[in-house]
Amino acid sequence: MNIFAGCILLVIASVFAYVIWQISRSASHTINDDIARADEDNVESAKEDQRMMRILLPIVIAMFVLAILLLTGAYAHLNMVSIGVTAGGVLFTYLGIIFRTSASKKNARCTSRCTGQVIRQNENEDSEGHTSYYAVYSYTVNGNEYELVDSYGGGERAIPQVGTSMEIFYDPVSPKVAYSAYEGKQSKVFTIWFLAFGIPMIVIGIAIAMPWYMWAFRIRSFFWMLRTIF
Questions:
Q1: Tens digit of each residue's pLDDT (9 = 90 or more) over 124-151
Q2: pLDDT tens digits, one per residue of 172-229
Q3: 139: nearest Cα among 195, 105, 99, 181
Q4: How confident is residue 165, by pLDDT bands cut at 50, 70 and 90?
Q5: Which of 74, 99, 124, 218 has the greatest number of CB atoms lying within 10 Å of its CB?
Q6: In angstroms, rounded to a whole number, what is the distance separating the alpha carbons of residues 227 and 5?
Q7: How far apart are the C-alpha atoms of 44 and 187, rounded to whole Å?
């Protein structure tokens, strides 16, 4: 039964890996191709695809690892609770790093700023019927008017309301590439939360894997060190 489940998981992981590879290759071609770069929207869409594929990559790797454990029977000799907690911590930490890296790239590119205003809220309903709202800003650079939609949504009252003034950070070379101060703040919050959950989970997972007598030895060594100091 475990071998059958491992085979199914291996096939699924292989399909996902192939899809990620194809999307990443297509996005890379769009970003690097001179003709494709002429359409700024295509480039931004390609970069967003690359970010999504980087987020999905560790999940696919974890599927391959789990499939190998099932096929070889090695899972019987491992502490699955420890592996699960540690893997979850690694995933959360990885997502936190992704958010931080993405924010850093935006900060490095969008060095100019101006004041924009929320002109409306876009609605987005998911497959389960939950509605999220996204603030849409209008801002003017060098006499040209642009619109910007926040990447982070929320409840109708939780996001900036229509008429609210907001600082906009934009690329001086391509003012259409921009982000709001609200989006920058939300990105920091997501980074902190993911890292705050991820790093302790890794430590807990490793602690679970270590035998109790190893911890007892470390505790005795710590108190012995204190006695020698004081």
A1: 877 677 788 899 999 999 999 999 988 8
A2: 988 888 999 999 998 888 889 989 988 888 888 777 766 555 555 556 666 666 666 5
A3: 181
A4: very high
A5: 99
A6: 54
A7: 18
Which residues are within 8 A (CB) of 128 and not within 5 positions of it... i.e. 6 or more apart?
A: none
- Provide the token pair at 95: 């997502």
Nearest Cα residue to 170 out of 189, 184, 156, 185: 184
The residue type at 192: I
Percent of the chain with pLDDT over 90: 17
What is the rounded average pLDDT for all residues in the chain? 79
Contacts (Cβ under 8 Å, ≥6 apart) of 29: 36
For 18, what's the count of Cα atoms within 13 Å in the CB-facing half-sphere? 6
Question: Which of the 8 DSSP states describes residue 179?
Answer: E
> Which of 126, 115, 106, 14 minimizes the C-alpha distance to 60?
14
User: Does residue 138 contact residue 164 with C-beta atoms inside 8 Å?
Assistant: no
